[in-house]
Amino acid sequence: MPLIPLQQGVPTSVGEFVSQYGEALISVATTAVLFLVAFVLIYFVGRSVLVRLVRGALNARGYDPKVVNLGGTVARALALFAALSLAATIAGFGTVLAAFATLLGALSLAVGFAAQDLLANFAAGIFILKDDPFGIGDWIEWPSSNETKSGVVQDIGLRVTKLKTFDNELITVPNSELADNAVTNPVADDELRIPFTFGIGYEDDIEQAKEIIVEEAATVDELKGDPDPDVILTELADSYCAVSRQLKDIAASV
Asked: Which of 62, 179, 230, 251 is most buried (CB neighbours < 10 A)?
């Protein structure tokens, strides 16, 4: 069996160094240059084409600018990973590529478990921006912890939505809470019918009371005439209050 020398000695001159390590250095340099050239070409070409296609498709479908920008960012990230993978394959880094894929899969799994709520809010934010159930400046209502909350939308982000309550408080609501519950948008159609309950005595004329209510409502400039105010008898209760006083109170509060 032939003997294989484990150590060839330390080169003492440039010639010995080139003779001993020249082929290995040339191989490493060639592989590195091939990897860099392939990565640069694939990344810049892929990023240019992919980002343009993604942004164009999202703009054509009328998505919110935040969603379009997010799509462009994701497209650039995909172009980066694709360029690294293809360049490593071309350069012959198969072992490195396999190790990188294993590590990336493990990291993705760990991040996914650790940030479930964050990812859920992120996905909900995308759907809110896409479906457009409400916009900035809209007054909305939604159920939360066995009660109904309401506020005016100040900002819609990819993770949270900021609203200002009628008590002038700023609240931050996770997007998943708004996406998973029924949200009421009373001002979506720019018109809102608001019911008021009036009570009259049993001895009073119902038809006359209806006429008075409609006439008084017509004097309130803030109320729109289309559709016209209407009065409907709902119940015969066991108490009453003065119609004229309620109408004055309502007119003063509008």
From this structure: 179
Helix (H) / strand (E) element for 154: namely strand 147-156
Give 86-101 pLDDT, tens digit per residue.
887 887 776 656 666 6
Lateral strand order in the sheet of 139-144: 139-144, 147-156, 160-164, 170-174
Give 67's contacts (C-beta < 8 A, 6+ positions apart). Answer: 58, 126, 129, 130
Q: How far apart are CA 217 and CA 229, in angstroms?
A: 7
Q: Which structure tokens are listed for 97?
A: 């590529």
- The two tokens of residue 168 are 């002038």
- Helical pair 94-114 and 65-91, crossing angle rounded to 10 deg: 150
Count CA within 13 A, CB hemisphere, residue 129: 25
Q: Whole-structure pTM over 0.85, yes or no?
A: no
Q: Which residues pair with 171 in a beta bridge?
A: 163
